[in-house]
């Protein structure tokens, strides 16, 4: 008995990109392109006609901007959308806005004519379409005032929060960081994201949050009230320099097919922070971070996995729970307060 293929509609004003995506997708045994559209107005009619499972959507198009179309689509007919974005400052900012509006994930536009790396690119697209087809379509987060700041416990610079995420993680990380007070413990974050996007991501969070959010730099001291995001294309590790925690970055081999890798960050936190860290694994496909979270837990760190109901893709948290890495499983909106409560409990235990 054959399983129905994932139906994909590709929307892009470039005929070359439409042809390339069609070729990549139709070569996969479990998916097919049911139609392509040069702009959102054509796409609107094709969605009604074909009822696709996943939409790939260009960011900048004629007749109607990709963001305007996405905004209307997620209000009227929420569905899994994968953005196809240019690797530019402007492209990255627009893409992050698309993720806020409800897009599931994004892929960078390929360099046409460059054959090297095309197999890897095709594999990435196929994996993300499969994840999109299994995901929960979500409507845009309604505009609202910033959430009230949680109260931070008295902390020392020894306390750390370590976060890993992938698909759906940009908005999940935002949901964790926004309620945190300016004097919260230092936070290190690995989000699967290519170079060119992490700086815009950090800058956007910095504007929204009370804590300072920045793209991590090699050798810098890790300070309370700051969140450090792994730069795309580089692994982020925690290290010691005398009495201080510092950031270490390197471009070693991908781990679990990712660079940055969540496991790399979690392993370093287990090694250098032990019970002074709190590990959090959020929404994402695959298994990156599962073994590292288990190592953090074995080193004495409290650990949390996002629950299935609040995940866009319940892949990484599921794997972490399965191997015993998650001490607790919580809804996304419960995580910020729980993390601070764990910090407070740890501080009290150490003072006794």
From TrEMBL:
Residues 154-346 form the CheB-type methylesterase domain. The modification 4-aspartylphosphate is found at residue 58. Its EC number is 3.1.1.61, 3.5.1.44. It holds the Pfam family CheB_methylest. Keywords: Chemotaxis, Cytoplasm, Hydrolase, Phosphoprotein. Residues 7-124 form the Response regulatory domain. It comes from the Bacteria. It is found in: Cytoplasm. The active site is at 166, 192, 288. Phosphorylated by CheA. Phosphorylation of the N-terminal regulatory domain activates the methylesterase activity. CDD domains: CheB_Rec, REC_CheB-like. It catalyses: L-glutaminyl-[protein] + H2O = L-glutamyl-[protein] + NH4(+); [protein]-L-glutamate 5-O-methyl ester + H2O = L-glutamyl-[protein] + methanol + H(+). NCBIfam families: PRK00742.1 (NF001965), PRK12555.1 (NF009206). Involved in chemotaxis. Part of a chemotaxis signal transduction system that modulates chemotaxis in response to various stimuli. Catalyzes the demethylation of specific methylglutamate residues introduced into the chemoreceptors (methyl-accepting chemotaxis proteins or MCP) by CheR. Also mediates the irreversible deamidation of specific glutamine residues to glutamic acid. PANTHER family: PROTEIN-GLUTAMATE METHYLESTERASE/PROTEIN-GLUTAMINE GLUTAMINASE, PROTEIN-GLUTAMATE METHYLESTERASE_PROTEIN-GLUTAMINE GLUTAMINASE. Belongs to the CheB family. Contains a C-terminal catalytic domain, and an N-terminal region which modulates catalytic activity. This is Protein-glutamate methylesterase/protein-glutamine glutaminase. It comes from Vreelandella malpeensis.
